[in-house]
Amino acid sequence: MEQEENILGTERIGKLIRKFSIPCIISLLVNSLYNIVDQIFIGWGVGYLGNGATNVVFPITMVALAFALMFGDGASAYLSLKLGEKKKEEASKGVVNGIIISIFISIILCVGALIFLPNILVAFGCTEALKEYALKYGYVIACGLPFMMVGTTLNSIIRADGTPRYAMTSMVLGAVLNIILDPVFIFIFKMGVEGAAIATIISQILTFVLNILYLKRFKSITITKSNFKFQTNIAKKVSALGVSSFITQMSFVFVVAVENNLLAKYGADTKFGAEIPITVLGIVMKINQILNSIIVGIAVGAQPIIGYNYGAKKYDRVKSTLKGVLGISVIISTIAFILFQTIPDKLIAIFGSGDENYMEFACMSFKIYLMLCICNGIQIPSGIFFQAIGKSLKSALLSLSRQIIFLIPAMILCSSIFGLVGVLYAGPFADGLAFIISSLLLTYEVRHFGKAKTLSTALIDDTSTDNKLQEQTIITISREYGSGGRYVGRLIADKLGIKFYDKDLIIKLAQETGLSEEYIENTEQKREKLESLNSGYSVGINTADELFIKETEMINKIADESSCVIIGRCSDFILKDRKNVMKVFIYSDMDNKIKRAVDIYGIQKNKAEKEIKRIDKLRANHYKYYTEREWKNYSNYDICLNSDVLGVEKTADLVCELVKSRANKVAI
After folding, report:
1. What pLDDT score was predicted for residue 453?
2. I want to staple 622 with a disulfide (CB 3.0 to 4.6 A). Which of 269, 312, 468, 527 is the partner?
3. Cα-flanking dihedrals φ and ψ of residue 564, to 5°?
4. What is the domain-level CATH number for residue 484?
């Protein structure tokens, strides 16, 4: 670990980007090509109506993929967190529950799709001309959903287990088999769209089988038949951890659903009809997805480089990495723009031939809908950049802005005014707005690197340890902001002659991770509510999770060594299974909290109450996320005290007396 961290802070930026980005690009491209290959062979073997049918069935697959990624990425995060806490049994339960819930939901989706497929297709814009093909393709695809979902869920978990090569291999082998089988079933067996669907699910079954076989090869945990027990609370936590991946995928489903319906509605009144626009724009979006996969892969690969160096306050390296990512992304998106504008007829021809109207609308779609695709080279990396530096609100805004905030409303509005062509112009409209917002936020962030200063309220341990306790005791102090809880903890440590841990933990984390103390203090114990809605592009666990894992290890080690007082950091939960722990919560009235915030922390009086509520909310979110408990649920603690009643000094005295009384041993 230490070696990798040193590399992130010292190795040449270009070499690091290549090392981390290339595997990400390959993985994402394999996913994109999976769908495109079917359309190429269907286009040549069936015709454009066959491709139109796959486009209205495609959202069903995306819904299934959204759930699969939610459970897979959620189980992966749960695995990493519990391994960090040294709880292998809990980690195993998380993985098992992720698999179980994926199986359960996949069966529901499979049965639901088989029963309600005609109605579902109508909701996704299917026309009468496409219906026959869509039903044939859709029924077969629906039968394969359990294999696709469980295989995808396992793929994420296998990567988290430290075997990304195995996960990539199982995906690549499935994709290669699909390429081989498509022409066999379509051209040799003359099975049309059904043949393409059969080829797809056979390929998905191969990936599924390979990933199932991995269950006996887990490196970090052991999974047995006895482990396969569904636990609702764990399944909920796994799902919550993976919700960002779900939202990212579902946003695309909503776009396709709205888009197909608008294309069918307004296309029917033109010479192109309803089917040509649905077919063509579906293909255009999937070709554009290849471009986006490359850009996402580059940016995601750079995430650990940016995150580490930002935390270590090596802002020159952050800027160099960002320039490298943006430069490469813009070059690639510029090449794509040139191809889309100059040879759209050649690109659409890859997917089969069509009449004059088909080719005309294809050229229009490439030239109009992807007019500002160059902007993707800025907008996508910007969202991932903010995710890497822990700015979850900005990341969530940029990740959802193009698809949900701008594109869908623009399609509805523009089509109502300009008809069919309005749907196409909604693409550059959304790209342009997303580009402007991301550029402004990115420019502001880079210009203000390292300028924001936060007054540290953490206390460092300089107490002499003349331990007055004969029995080892750990006292955890949870506290509202401004309640004086931190100082109560310090006084308790002084009076009992035991170690006090607050700033020491920050210093130790900085030494072990290479991140700056300022960054750690501003990141730990704080979690934005929208962080759960953040972009699903990230691989592995984020910086906040890594800090929590490190803190958990430190707190357990500290608790093994000697009596002490530990401030916050979910220490009451981390040490909840130990018998020698006194869990204390300190709160206070708002007026007194405001006074302390002004006098001690230097906050302006007119802003104090708002700041207190904000920080307490972040602490509550952090506590809820990692413990699945409510921060202010007093049943979590052994004693809860209002520091205003006795004052800070006497509150500390009272806790000391309770600790001594509980241990029933007082030094003479």
Report:
1. 53
2. 527
3. -170, 170
4. 3.40.50.300
